[in-house]
Amino acid sequence: MFSDFFDDISQSKDTFDLPVFTDSIELVALYDNKIIGLLDIGIYTKEISQKYLYYPADSVAYFSNFAIHPDYQGLKIAQQLFDVAKEQLIQKQMDVLAVFTRSDGPANHLYQKWGAELIAKNYLVLGIAKNEKESVKLSVDKGKKQLIVTHPHGEIANYYKRDGVYLVTKEEDLALFDAHKIIPEYSYILKINSTSKK
Length: 198
What we know:
By secondary structure, the protein is mainly beta. Helices cover 15% and strands 43% of the residues. The protein contains three helices and eleven strands. The N and C termini lie far apart (38 Å). The mean pLDDT is 89.
């Protein structure tokens, strides 16, 4: 099965340990003693939550893994897993849940249906940059709902390279590449605690 998360495939289950995480929510859906779905959420420490790039808050949770076996999709298993997880997030008094996804239309639709707000959209480019530059710094422009990439001297960069793949923040800058493949990435924030106002 192909996934747009080709660059984030683990050979073992993620762990949610200090100093990054204080807690986690880890759920599975079973059918005939087979795992047909899973949902993993890491809960960041207060310090990391308050410095979180996409949405600083006192308590930020991160959607680490969420998958339903293809043979069981469309049966509301994702909704059932999320309902259980959301109740636990409320009990843990979480402010927000950060969700990252790629070009998967049904997943994007589902997150939006749950009330997630698009914070940023960018593109992963597999290919060759026509003009490579130096190191960069990241920030988020919440008004434009995109990542901002800057060079050390403050000028705006059009892209940066992460693990051999370019991250491009503006669609028009895709022309700067001889691209083999372009994958949209979406960053969402789902407000859990109704008093969360950033």
